[in-house]
Amino acid sequence: MSYQNEILNPSRRRLLTGTSGLVLSAGALALLGNAGWAQGMNTAHTQDIAILNVAVGLEYEGINAYAIALKSGLLTAAVSRVAAKFQDDHKRHNELLIATIRKLGGEPVQEKSEADYGKALNVDRLKTQEDVLDLAARLELGATNAYLGVIPALKDPQLAQVAARLATDEAAHWALLNFDLGRPLMPALGFGT
């Protein structure tokens, strides 16, 4: 079964949209629902703000990468729908991160222009849908690793939980993209070969 068919399968679609919504709702409640959480800001929050700003930068990169992909004309209609869904996930992640940074008293980093992201990502080299999917898979894996990597550095345990939940979203994106590219899900362990 192709990625497009697998993704658009109603039961699979419910799984993806339901999981993403639950992740973000739980994260939003954990971060934004606790009025006393941001009170008493200290140096730990300053470090957390810096880490969250790196995450905001990664989310902006993902949002813009999907925007470029959607405008490229290289994607089928089915893959475009999935790309738009993934882009929406990144937008929600970013809204959550930005709100958290502001609640902690910080200022979120600013988004660069789409052209800047395109140049940094070498999008002029994208010639096929597979090229686009490969780029997206690399970005999703990078975001997964980034979120997992910052968990020990976050001082607030609630933020660490949210980073883990966001990593799960990114890993789900990566796995689905990897599936469509015909790659094994666990290449280092030899699964799927």
Write the layout of secondary structure elements.
Elements: H1 3-8, H2 10-32, H3 43-71, H4 77-103, H5 114-120, H6 129-150, H7 157-180
Helix pairs in contact: 2-4, 2-7, 3-4, 3-6, 6-7
Whole-number total of structural domains: 1
CATH architecture descriptor text? Up-down Bundle
Helix and strand pattern? HHHHHHH
Low-confidence stretches: 1-41
The biggest sheet, with number of strands, parallel, antiparallel or mixed sense and barrel status, is:
none
Shape: globular
Helix content: over 70%
CATH topology name, in short, is Ferritin
Mean pLDDT: 80
Q: What would you report as the Rg, rounded to the nearest angstrom?
A: 17 Å
Strand content: under 5%
Straight-line distance between termini = 17 Å
Number of helices: 7
Keyword list:
193 residues; globular; mainly alpha; 7 helices; disordered N terminus; Ferritin; single chain
In short:
This protein has 193 residues and is mainly α.
What does this structure look like?
- With 193 residues, the protein is mainly alpha-helical.
- It has a single domain (3-33, 44-181), classed as Up-down Bundle (Ferritin).
- It is built from 7 helices and no strands.
- It has helices spanning 3-8, 10-32, 43-71, 77-103, 114-120, 129-150, 157-180.
- The radius of gyration is 17 Å and the shape is globular.
